What does this fold into?
Amino acid sequence: MKKFTCFNLSLVLLLLCGCTAQENKDTRFLLDTVVTLTAACDSETLSGAFLVCEEYERLLSRTIEGSDVHTLNNSRGFVEVSEHTTKIIKDAIYYGDLSNGKFDITIYPVSSLWDFNSQTVPNRDEISEALKNVDYQAIKIDGNRVNLQHKKIDLGGIAKGYIADKLLEYFKQKNTPEGIIDLGGNIVVFGERDYTIGIKQPFSENEIAAKIKLRNKTVVTSGNYQRYIKKDGKIYHHILDPETGYACETDLYSATIIADSSMQADAYSTICVLLGLNKAKDFIENSPGVEAVFIDSDNNLHYTSGLSYKNDTFTLK
It folds into this structure.
């Protein structure tokens, strides 16, 4: 069993690594976020990577008509979907079971009630009614045919991680030696050199609290301060508890996950915030090949014993 170390800081992920003369870099708005790709490749290869993003967006978006998710959410009975969609849904069900239901992709009827742009808080009756349609265990899968059983899904808590993993596969197929994949905070670094990822202090403009030095890893952060509504002195953030339909009320402000799979890190970061500090500690300590940094509600920072900290920088042991 790993041990934990604790000290006082508050963190969020921020990429610090710039490109070299041999690298190409571009930024576009895709997947409902800012996507920045930096890689030691030609412009054609980099443009192809963005086409990969667009392909998966057309497949997995719940708002694009004709996508697998949009079709599933507006159909009854079994629907033939792509192997990618099937894979993500199967893994989402696995993460739901692993977290005792805390991770639930059928949360969409509830999450759609929360408008963080207009700062709208739904009423309790609306949430109670929507909760009747939240149950990932109702989903049926037969080959690549999926039946949501009148549920509606949102893959936002896992799809970006899957796409980041697929982008890594793409760059390796193109013999790209090194680079950085940043899908709005889902970060993958690859190649034979270390990359430094800054950990930004929450609610600050550019203040860096600490750094992580990594090679060939993915890092994903979920935090309750990233999107929220403040009303009558209370903050309602975007990480919803599928039992209550409201923002989870745990003692964690954020969870940063370091792993080999970005999809795993994506799901785990959300699960950890939903679990709270002590259960999240146990969860990660029993997950081989995964490390984590947690910030609790007193702004104390905790990290797994697979990480060391020296000179303001985390490294893997």
Observations:
- The chain has one domain: 4-316.
- The CA atoms of residues 287 and 305 lie 13 Å apart.
- The two ends are 15 Å apart (CA to CA).
- The first strand starts at residue 4 and ends at 8.
